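FAQ: What does the model actually see?

It sees only this:
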Amino acid sequence: MSESHTPSAGSAMLNTAVAHNARVWNYWIGGKDNYAVDQRVGEHVAGMFPIIREIARADRWFLGRAVRFLTEERGVRQFLDIGTGLPTADNTHEIAQRIAPESRIVYVDNDPIVLAHARTLLTGTDEGGTDYIDADVHDPEAILQRAAGTLDFTEPVAVMMLGILNFVLDTDKARDIARRIMATVPAGSYLVLTHPTFDAELGGEGQIPAMKFWNENATPPITARSGADIASFFEGLDLLEPGLVSCSRWRPEADSPAVVPQFGAIAVKP
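And it is asked to produce this:
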């Protein structure tokens, strides 16, 4: 992995007194990179909304299926993973470079614990490249400018936005961020996205009180959206089969969990 850029002035400061999404998510999927406050909030949310651990696992498994699909079947060799979270087993670069060692991956996050772990763990192959940049999803131009040091934006890029636009509370702004990023990458690029929903058809009603508790007791604030709003993030792109579905039902494998209230999809830029 090449040397990461210097953290920006807007980088999140480490605060172990308040639960943080990256660490709580790590707790839900069985990781060790979390604190007592993250465990307490994580347990409380799980008590209110027991399926949350299944959502976390389903989202992680979707990542693996998506990267394998794009690398093996679509020939993608560049990934821009925005909001990567804490490294665990089978990160984006590990999956992609296992299939195609020449793959290049840029991770983006702005949590200081994620940054520290990324510098240690996210090492790539000699043939490819892996980098980490400290940037905020609210500033897509900064992400793209700094990612260009590793990625070639004249060639297709898979933009990974798993569970990140739910931290952009204004839907119009979230839609604009996705649009601006996809406007920069060339035709043949992909948007890979997951997002929590409150839609009853996916069992998402319980997201509302759980997220209210989260927003009062943890950071950053989060929101769920309707399937229609999430679909709007793919405007101008062509959704691949099976379209926008529960992320556990996107090209599921035999051990994939049941339907979870987290939409997932991949779309290609025509």
